Amino acid sequence: MSDLDDIRPAWRSLKRKWEHSFHPMCSYMGMFPPSLPHYFIHRLTNEGDVVLDPFAGRGTTPLQACVDGRIGIGNDLNPMAYILNKAKVTPPPAATVRERIEELRLQYNPPTIDHVPQRIQMLYHENTLSQLVYLKQEFGLDDADFPKTILSLSPADTFITGLILGIMHGQSGQYLSVSMPNTFSMSEGYVEEYIEKEGLEPPNRNVFQKLLDRLRTIYKDGPPARRGHAFFGDARDLPSTLADAEETPDRADLVFTSPPYLKVLKYGLYNWIRLWFLNQEPDTVDQRLDDELDLEAYLEFMTDTFEVMDDVVDPDTGVAAFVIGDVDQNGETINLAREVAEEVVAPMMNFEVGRIVEDRVPDNEKVSRIWGDTKGEATEIDRILIAHRGEVTVRENPSGLKTKSLPGQQETLGSFNN
User: Where are the annotated segments for Disordered (predicted)?
Assistant: First the structure.
């Protein structure tokens, strides 16, 4: 039995209350639980090692790496994802953020909201919307000079923007909007019809007070043990991105990521409310992310991605672990992880397929469940494809994990590598 045969889905035994308080800053479609990267970080790296996520989403992997004493690096081409990663891995002191919120509150002068699209106006009380517009203007996010608008934010303003994105819509009193899901934005037409049908009135929320309340909750555990790095860009440009960045490692000991789903999620469309605050159009974001790929194009994209991994993963001991969900297409279930292993990784000279570990996602954790059984193409099975270079040392399980009687749940890999 190789060391990698000891990798088992023990991460499911950790309860949610275990996670660091920064993790739930903002919900995000397609996110995996922090216990998943935590398990792989502890088993495949040492403290001080570098952990990279090229498709970092809400920043779960880089944040968990920083919490676990590693250097977490997050990259994404979604502006919302960049903000969340930057806020989590390079956070300013809580006192600095609090002082900035108080400063903004004292300087507040209500702007006009007549120019705000009706689709946004219907969600918020006029006082709440006025405060959001003011903050958007103060942060320079109403400027058309993208991506400078998000890249030039101060650490405090980045963190506050992350907090705002997290409370823009939801179902309880901590959120700013009419009652609606907080994980994603339903379509404009659906929301408008729902508001009218239910007779909903936007609540009069004080954004500054809600930010202070949220700051207190988010900072409950303090900042992570180490600081990391966040980048806005295409994963395929990472070699030059890391090489050009100051005081940033250009090689990772572990890459842990979940690449874009195959025709499953539209991150722009499902975040049109939050993207309004960043002055981004959903269609523009979705075109930039280019997730509408068929299987052939997806495998070409993954080939490009693994060629990049060749340049950013440690050449002697590096490991790349990709969380890839099965997908249903035309009544057929596609095991994407196996497709990537056979068609992409196996032919490569510098990577060896180590294992594919199955992770069955509980139905109540799938965001796509809200569309019913016939909607969406994601299945309840994720698989972690582990590729490595050279010898792999698997360390002891992190504390708090139940590992007895866990099935191996691996696929036969003998035919993958030449």
Answer: 397-418
